[in-house]
Amino acid sequence: MLVFVLNKHGKPLMPCKPSKARKLLKQGKAKIVNYEPFTIQLLYGSSGYKQGCTAGIDAGSKNTGIAVTTDDGRVVYKAQVELRQDIKGNIETKRRLRRSRRNRKTRYREPRFLNRKRKDGWLPPSIAARIDAHYNIMKKLSKIIPITNIVVEVARFDVQALINPNIQGEEYQNGDMKGFDSVKEYIKIRDNYQCHYARLRPDIQCSDELTVDHIIPRSKGGTNNPTNLVCCCKEHNKRRGDLSYKEFTGKDLPAIRDFRVTVFMNVLKDHLVPRLQKIAPTKYTFGLYTRRKRKEWNLEKSHINDAIVIAGIKPKQEVSVSYYIRQVRKKKRSLHEEIPRKGKSRPNRDAKRNEKNTKKIVTNNNYWCLWDKVYIPAIDKTGYISGFTGKWVYVQDIEGNYLQISEKYKQVNSKELRLICRNNNYICQQFISIL
Ligand SMILES: [Zn+2]
Q: Could you tell me which residues belong to the region Disordered (predicted)?
């Protein structure tokens, strides 16, 4: 467990132990600025001792791992982030409702054609939202931890190596990052981990271990290009030996269909990396190198461990705090109702905002906002406000289960709540883990 520290001017310093933070607070040398995560600010100038901190990001479309490691292998922050998946659906609903609304009792509007072009760098909203989320989380993190480097995993295999398998470069010269390894990995995935010769030569029993076979052998001028490679088991590979494709299978050379791999992989590289660059110098890496190193370091597979590996500094074994963060929708703003709400006979025709569609309710001398983290003493549980009904609120835990005091009602009286902290679009829970 660590306490995040800001200096007198609000710039991040290295996190410290809670005992030290307690001492500083007691002596009046610091003040608390945030409870989640616990952050203090020094009131006097400090020596400003800073170490290098590298952030690793295992970028994903649903779950993302984030870890920050110091140069000497202390993991000072690690989190798994669950991203919103409802963007695409919401945009489609919005589009459908607008389209139907347009043809109802509306005045005539001149057709417009000047808004039909997509701007340069346009991305589908669901992908743009994910990239924004990655950027926003790193930006927040850089305000409490002095991050000096960022490494992000952009794809499972190296695209450049696929296009040009004989690539030369700094990364490719040292042993375990040879370009051809990436091609091999890609071929296995492309061919669905199935032996190419299994059907062509059923007389030979396949073995478990998979490798990659050159259709035209290297010795006869075949290249490392993906179109000359197929996935194949060790046994078939051994038995083929120096035979040509025709001699081994009795068939002509196959036309290997190759996917256009570059399109979806370059999205992260071209859009996320330049944005992260604004926070700290950013490098990128590929999934197959992560996986290999994770096995080497004997870490279990998880988004957080992948992020630690991506950061590239071997961590020390220690008990520490992990964060589970979920991205949430702040408020529904639409007024249009397609079907009547539950308990009503007609839809919202006069477009008045429904009371439930609020981001805040005010009770006697307190106010409650959507996604406030609250503690319910009656059942000794902590949750997040997920909705309102009059002066009562719905409270969910981070997995989305309702926390209720009585069996009968889902909603909880706001008198029963104790505020822990306010939240915007991210709700967060800590858990203890051993690395
Ligand atoms: Zn085989």
A: 334-357
CA of 349 to the centre of ligand 1 (A): 66
Q: How far is the CA of 233 from the centre of ligand 1 (A)?
A: 4
pLDDT, tens only, 372-411: 999 999 999 999 999 888 889 999 999 889 999 988 989 9
Distance 122 CA to ligand 1 centre (A): 44
Q: Quick: pLDDT tens for 19-62.
A: 999 999 999 999 999 888 899 999 987 666 667 899 999 988 88
Percentage of the chain exceeding pLDDT 70:
89
* Centre of ligand 1 from the C-alpha of residue 230, in Å: 11
CA of 290 to the centre of ligand 1 (A): 28
DSSP type of residue 216: S
Which class in CATH covers the domain with range 55-85+123-155+277-327?
A: alpha beta
